[in-house]
Specification:
This protein is an alpha/beta fold. It is built from ten helices and nine strands. Helix content is about 30%, strand content about 25%. The strands form two sheets. Strands 5-6-7-3-8-9 form a six-stranded mixed sheet, with helices on both faces. The chain has a three-stranded antiparallel sheet with strand order 2-1-4, covered by helices on one side. Strand 6, helix 7 and strand 7 form a beta-alpha-beta unit. The N terminus is likely disordered. Bound molecules: adenosine-5'-triphosphate and magnesium ion. Adenosine-5'-triphosphate binds next to helix 2. The site of magnesium ion has 5 residues, from helix 2.
């Protein structure tokens, strides 16, 4: 993996385009590589023979209908689910060796918030990975957590029990927790689900900032209208991978129709 200094140097482009990195030989650096991945629940395959390469530095949407396997794909990449076939690598190594470089914001509703923890503590949990087993978060970690809370507009709620926040507010806390991880790759499963328009803009600005800093950001997204505005890379998924690549090249009616199974017309501007 490249050092952070390198990442910053090679990615000083404007914030609306992908800053795909190349190594010394000029080859594109792949942040994630998925090979022949098949995942099943109770012997029923829900992802079938997926090959996918995610170049470093993209802000990528995964789109597909409900039940297409989008969350399953992320969980399989993160080793939460064991595939029945295939493999995944993060910067050329298995996930368990790259854990500290990966941040994950799960889909809303998939986490039980019924434990007595305040927002600040939830965010500080994001720093645990870089601390090792023995050390506890200290002044530095607390400062980072407070900064992240500020960024997502949740500083006034830092001492609120997490279960006493609204769904959209909880989502922002999750985002703050991912931010303090200082990862190289961010996976976010529907971060805009159920948030208001202001929060959506705040979140997308943070995601674009991450891309500007050379991070790779993978987002499960349902609003097809905003794909060209928010993302530079897209993967169409429906049990199988339909297509993956730059939004400007592959975000078209043909791929939408193949993915959603209806005659789709995108009325969005590219
Ligand atoms: N724990 C589970 N046990 C059995 N089947 C499951 C389980 N989780 C998901 N599935 C099934 O696997 C398929 C893919 O589910 P997944 O959650 O990955 O879809 P998704 O694309 O994320 O959908 P959504 O847009 O609704 O979030 C679905 O048919 C779903 O019913
Ligand atoms: Mg899902």
């Amino acid at each position: 993996m490249k050092s952070m200094d390198n990442i910053k140097n090679t990615n000083s482009k404007d914030e609306t385009t992908a800053s795909i990195s190349a190594n010394e030989a000029g080859a594109v650096v792949m942040a994630v590589k998925v090979d022949d991945l098949t995942v099943a629940y109770n012997y029923k395959p829900v992802l079938w023979d997926i090959d996918l390469e995610i170049p470093e530095g993209v802000l990528m949407a995964i789109v597909g209908p409900n039940g297409a396997g989008k969350s399953t794909l992320i969980k399989a990449i993160l080793g939460i689910l064991k595939p029945i076939a295939g493999s995944v690598s993060i910067y050329g190594k298995p996930y368990h060796k790259q854990r500290s470089h990966v941040a994950y914001v799960p889909q809303k509703g998939s986490v039980d918030w019924d434990f007595p923890t305040v927002a600040l503590d939830v965010v500080m949990m994001g720093t645990y990975g870089s601390l090792g087993w023995i050390k506890r978060p200290g002044v530095k970690e607390k400062k980072a957590a407070l900064e992240a809370l500020e960024k997502v507009g949740m500083l006034p709620f830092k001492n609120r029990q997490i279960s006493q926040l609204s769904g959209g507010q909880q989502q922002r806390i999750f985002l703050a927790r991912a931010l303090v991880q200082d990862a190289s790759i961010y996976f976010m499963d529907e971060p805009f689900q159920g948030v208001d328009a202001t929060t959506e803009i705040a979140i997308i600005n943070i995601l674009k900032e991450l891309r500007k800093a050379g991070k790779t950001v993978v987002v499960v997204h349902h609003d097809l209208q905003t794909v060209p505005e928010y993302f530079d890379w897209v993967t169409f998924l429906n049990v199988k991978k339909i297509a993956t690549g730059p939004v400007k090249d592959i975000f078209n009616d043909d791929n939408l129709t193949k993915t959603y199974g209806i005659n789709y017309k995108v009325s969005v501007q590219k």
